[in-house]
Amino acid sequence: MAKTLDLTNGPIARKLLLFALPLLGASLIQQLYTTVDILFVSNYLGTGASAAVGASVLLNSALVNLFTGISIGAGVVIAQAFGRKEEVQLSKSIHTSMMLGLIGGVLLTIIGEFSGSAFLNAVKTPASIFQDALDYVQVFFLGLTFMLVFNMAAGVMRALGNSQTPMLIQLVCGIIHVVTNFLFIKYMSNGILAVAWSSVLSQVLSAIIAVYYLLHDGVMSIPKLAVDRPLMREIIRIGLPAGLQGVVVTLSNVFVQYFINGFDVVAIAAFTAYYRIELLFYMPLVALGQAMMTFTGQNVGARLYGRVKSGLRTTLIFGVGYSLVLAAVLLYFGRETFGVFYTDPAVIDMGVTIIWISFPFYFFYVFLEVFADTLRGGGLSDVPMYIVLFNQCLLRTVILFGFMQLAHDIRLLVAVYPITWGTAGAMLYWYYRKGTWMMRPPV
Asked: In b/e form, how buried is each residue of 113-130, taking b as 16+ CB within 10 angstroms?
């Protein structure tokens, strides 16, 4: 295990940054070739094809988010075993996780293949794009097993402190995906299937490379693949709440979009650009949270609770400092930033209004992300789920309804975001301060 990073000793700030930067790089790579996908579909295949792909996004995201949560649970269990230096338990955790990835992928593929048509009918997919959307969904789910195996393998590597290799695999397969996207669209008669098969190919390659790496590095052995039931229950106990949180938050965003759509086209366009710009905040903070989750897992496993607290303080300083500096830069260059996306002065004006309400308070989100991931790293996943769902789904929706009754004002809609970031962060901080979550017995 040459590239593992032991986070239980050494300089905290340096190790957290070394671990977090490849996580950020992986997120940027994923975002870039997702954007390329959109560009290929919209520019080469037209609006109908783009709509057909878009019709399936919610189903794809919901199922992938669910199993991404399971991989989070696996990562925590593996990180804690690594921190305790329990080689036998570590090996069992890794092999159980990989088997769960394989079994879960096969099950979700079957579910997706049989539920695709029903889902597209349920969301009232127009008849004109229904068959194209169904074709895309059915091919997409053929690659889902490979996607989940890669996600689990990447989770294993990160839990052992190796965040570089998953990023490099994503980079290589992302380039292959872009190239095959172009070639398949050019030479296949059905453009939708071309895009779908290109995605499947990149998923297959990423899974093969990741599994080969684990085998070659001695982390995994095919004969040892088996499900240890106590470990499986622990992985699901930690991972399922995180997965359900991702699914429900994804679905709840539909309600927010409902309110946005109640304004004019200018507001909708401004929010479309805002969500792209917001990624400059969101992705680095998610990377910091993921780094803190692994850091916590390893150090809770080693019973180094003081080091967990020091790591948390360091991560919060990084996150808050980054958020405040970036907010200042983007607010100063607000018009130029939105000008990258639109030339319409009305859209730019609306965009600047949005960021002046949101970005100065984005540091609230740091507390939400970092405290939630710290608790998960300690093996506690249900409480962060309840807190995040209460604030991001229920409270946010209630406040939105109330604000929109007071006045149909875009500024009130935007204000809901920092309010619920703040309330969620405060509740997570309160639970973190109780301290009892760190004393859970090992698996």
From this structure: bebbeebbeeeebeeebb
Separation of alpha carbons 419 and 281, rounded Å: 17
143-to-82, 130, 132, 405 alpha-carbon distances in Å: 31, 21, 17, 45
Nearest in space to 249 (alpha carbons), one of 403, 384, 71: 384
Residues 328 and 326: their CA atoms lie apart, in Å, by: 5
DSSP symbols for 24-37 = HHHHHHHHHHHHHH
In 3D, which of 436, 430, 294 has the Cα closest to residue 374? 294
Q: How confident is the model at residue 421 (pLDDT cuts 50, 70, 90)?
A: very high
Which tokens sit at 263?
Answer: 């304004």
- Rounded to 5 degrees, what angle do the CA atoms 31, 32, 38 make? 90
pLDDT band at 97 (very low <50, low <70, confident <90, very high): very high
Is it the case that residue 143 has pLDDT exceeding 80? Answer: yes
Return the structure tokens found at 367. 């507390």
pTM for this entry: 0.84
Can you tell me the distance from the alpha carbon of 395 to that of 250, in angstroms, rounded to the nearest whole number?
A: 15
Low-confidence winner among 49-58, 267-276, 362-371 (lowest mean pLDDT): 49-58
Specify the DSSP class assigned to residue 395: I
Q: Do 206 and 146 form a contact (C-beta atoms < 8 A)? A: yes
CA distance 291 to 305: 16
- Residue 391 is classified by DSSP as I
Q: Which residue reads 């975001």 in tokens? A: 417
Closest CA to 342 of 247, 274, 273, 285: 273
CA dist 173 and 143 (Å) reads: 14
